Amino acid sequence: MQCGKLRSMRSFWFLPLLLLFTVALKVPPANAQGVQTFTLDTFIKWLHQYQDAKPAFKPGDVLTSKDMEKMRPFIIPGFIEQLDFPDFRLAVQPVQSHQPRKDYMECTEKYQGQVRLNPDGTMSNYVCGQPFSDASLNAEDPTSGIKAAWNFEYRWQNFGLIGVSWNLTWVRFGGEHKGEQPTIVPDVPPEWLAGFNIKTRFPANISEEYGGGGSFQRNLGAYYRRVYYSHLAQEQANGGLLPVPDSKLFEFKEFTGFQAPFDIRGTVFIVYRYADPHRPDDGWAYIPQLRRVRRISAEVKSDSMMGTDHTIADFYGFADRELDWRWKFLGWKDVLGMMDQQKLYLHCYGTNGLIVNDPGWSLRKFAVIERTPIDPRAPYSAVLNFWDSENWDSWFEVAFDRGGKLWKIWEYPKKWSETYTKEWSEINLGAHTTTFTGVPVMDLQNSRGTIIIGYGVGFPVPTAREVENLYDISKLEELHR
Questions:
Q1: CATH number of 3-28+155-479: 1.20.140.10, 3.90.330.10, 2.60.120.470, 2.50.20.10?
Q2: Potential cystine with 200: which of 123, 281, 423, 434 (Cβ 3.0-4.6 Å)?
């Protein structure tokens, strides 16, 4: 229905990057120990084989590449092969509580019992909190998949995430990146901050975050903010609504702006997600070369984001619309995950510089979800998500190409908000949630990846002025004159 509009959008949206991205795709397939031949069935067999595995390690142990067989039951196929390098260290930490904040938990207790799943996959009687209990999810129940999807959609995130500045780096497998890694955090146009007061200063040099190998090709800088408008546990006195006009119409709005390099500086995307789950998202783009705001198709979410290995639909592990996918709950699985990052910023290492280098590993229980797209034009044939059983945040995402072969693996490392005692405490302390620190993405078929590292990431309390300024479509052209 919107194919014509989508083609016209593509004709200018990716114009600044089209040539470079096309050249970048012409590479031999990755040969990471044959993992590109893995299929969804490889992962299902792994899940069944190790469903009830007991660890041969304990908190305080440090695992290395010599301990692959100890780790194999708790780290997914395709990813564990990437850990086989001499410097790899996995320091097992005690499991920490990630229970959401009191107001969200009270909302769950008060309203969860009344939530009902409709025949079309939507919910009735949902107010706030976690829609469905973990105990109600069963691999034998065909409705558990969509229930799990709603639990993820309405997980606790305070008022929504801000990433004041993100560095997105294109990586080629093999080689080195000496002198190619980013050294500074790109400045953010003050108009994008919309009155948001930054107290913490960016680090003076960020090159140490980029360890290991891999050849770096291009660095992008981006600002991102999502704000939730409805079903807010902390706004029950206001009917669960953000105190701005028309809040009840929206679930959230988000703003993505690129400030570097020069050829895409000033490019902005704004997306509205409506409270009505049947209503498609609306999106707009400001393109500096045109000096105009243009409406964009919601289908653009499945395209590469500015030539990286990430799409808008991959944000958070899943940012598409639930009703556009078929869902299957595969069960619970203990997995080693980076859900308690200890360093302030994400650090990477490994053969291709795409493994998180931090002692914040622990063995946590995750919901394993299989989703398949309804739209036959979708780039993935299936995706697996691993969502934490306590607060439903992401760790692994695994995507398969249209032929059913393993294509991409994402890591979504997290840092507990209450550990931000100095830098960025102003947007984290008191949130009681896991903060999104970055995303290393591996494209195992094309021997490439993307490292995304966030600076100034947290869950602040917005003001009405910030929200109205940032998401006002009519102001986009004015702000960039």
A1: 2.50.20.10
A2: 423
